[in-house]
Amino acid sequence: QMDLPYCFIRPSFFMQNISGVHAFEIKHFDRIVVPVKKALTSFIDAEDIGEITAKILSEPEKHQNAGYSITGPEAISYDEAAIILTEELSRTITYADPKPKQAKRYWIDIRGLDKEYATVMAMLYMMTRLGTAKKVTNVFENVVGKKPQDFRQFVKRNLDVWR
Question: What is the DSSP letter of 107?
Fold first, then answer.
């Protein structure tokens, strides 16, 4: 057995899911299509994941054999995400809140997403629906020395994606 030093980084949901796979509905139909009801998500910006990873790699002795669950500074619902998008885009964005089976069928049959990809998304959103994505940690701030970006900051930086 090798005793290799490690540091596990466990990020919460990427904000980039909203500017990536879910941007299509926001841009064309003014809707967020995610089946999680009122569940909260502690989104983190992928830029912050990169920044904390670089920090850890630059001072490995401080983070040896550690595990870090990293989140953004808040946990918000998709209704709240829709309100922020509405305010920043100056048009009404709504949270569609489909049933899980409808969402999966939509992703595969209408959007044409790969079946395995849609299945993984459906499983992750089922976990979120059950409350597993709401925890907020201060790990990013403790390691990096500043607050992670919040959802509104992310939206302001990426407005063109949804226009």
Answer: I
CA distance 45 to 133: 15
Q: Which residues contact 58 (CB under 8 A, 6 or more apart)?
A: none
**pTM reported for the whole predicted model:** 0.93
How far is the C-alpha of 83 from the C-alpha of 81, rounded, in Å? Answer: 5
Residue range 24-35, pLDDT digits in tens: 999 999 999 999
pLDDT tens-digit readout, 96-121: 999 999 999 999 999 999 999 999 99
Q: Strand, coil or helix: what is 11?
A: strand
Amino acid at 147: K
Residue 90 Rama label (left phi>0; alpha psi -120 to 50; beta): left
What are the residues whose beta carbons fall under 8 Å from the beta carbon of 18, sequence distance 6 or more?
Answer: 26, 32, 43, 81, 154
